[in-house]
Amino acid sequence: MLAYLRTTALFSLLIASPLAAQDTAWKVGLAEANITPEMPVVMSGYGGRTKPFEKVAAELFVKVMVLEDASGQRGVIVTSDLLGFPAEVAEPICERIGKKTGLKREQILLNSSHTHAGPAISLRSVSKDLPGEAQRTIEYTRQLQEKVVETVVQATTRMKPATLSHGSGVIHFAMNRREFTTDRIILGVNPRGLADRSVPILRVAGADGSMIAVLFGAATHGTTLGADNYQICGDYAGFAQSYLREKFAKAQAMFMLGCAGDSNPYPRGTMDMAKTHGKTLGVEVERVLQAKLRRIAGPLKIAYSKTGLPLQTLPRETIERFAKDKRHPQNYAAGQMLAVLEKGSKLPTHYACPLTVWQFGKDLTLVGLSGEVVVDYVPFLEKALGSNHLWIAGYCNDVFGYLPSARVLSEGGYETRGLYSGGVGVFDPRAERVVIENVRDLAKRAERMLPD
To answer: How many helices (H) and strands (E) does the chain have?
Structure first.
């Protein structure tokens, strides 16, 4: 459905060519750190939990890949077994990285697997029901920030010659979750709904040709485990990384989440299911790695912006009605909006959303979108940018809430709930066009060949 990249055998004929020489001009630095909480903290993802986690089923990690092209241009990809980095946590991390390494903000891409079986991260109280746990969450978050910074610094000191190549696979456990009922859309199972089942893969080989890292993706929520789970783990994405670590002991396995906003794993509900999905994904990555991959040349060009996405202007009576209706998806956002109005302040009209495009020569374009991005943005961006050699990731840099399409906003449902971190409000349907136009502009700046 969503074809990404076409493999080719032509590179076998180019070993002695200038292009092939450029291929091997990459340098890569790798590092990882264990971020499993050592103290009892509140878990993330579900509001109904009433106690901290009870057990560690699998350890959590932050992993770093520093890429450098022949001209010395660098880009840093940070992946993590977390729900997501809100701006208040992400921006201080990037600022500290910049001070220690000289890297600019646009050269840093943070991504999280969105596991709902990990710790909450916040620099403020995260639960009215568990006020005594707030300080431990804040302490964990501060430690996490320092670990991310130090892991990036460590990776920058380990730069070695490398070659990059790319391929794509497919998984079938990603399920659209917007189930239509007679009166509303619920979080359920929609087999006819759109889902991105592609598995983009970046293979990194050392000077001797052996694999030293693999970056791979999928596009479904880290919600195989439900709110009744009190065991820490990275859900299916964590188990997929563990599988690949066992298969390729010398390679760092990194997971980057795609446009998973309206998709859940299927089936779901148990730890065994999470492990099964993880193995399924790991086996598919392993299969693609054994096939012929497309070699990636430089240079690396990065374009980044914070784009103001328009928010809805709602009458106060509408906001009050939504705030009173516990079943309304915008109940929480409406409550936040009322609090602003009651202080005599004006509601914001836009939210600053980070967007980024990384262009690897003519061979690969990585689009990094922020928020919990619904799958509609994959075909939108394929049309706007061209579908070939395109990797679209969500949950990058700032997980502020859902990024719905105009269609999803018109239909309603959970994914229309609005901002839950870093801002107040509900996106306007016009935000869809603003995202598409700005990503296209960034791709042009990064020198991707665009369709007319």
So the answer is: 10, 21
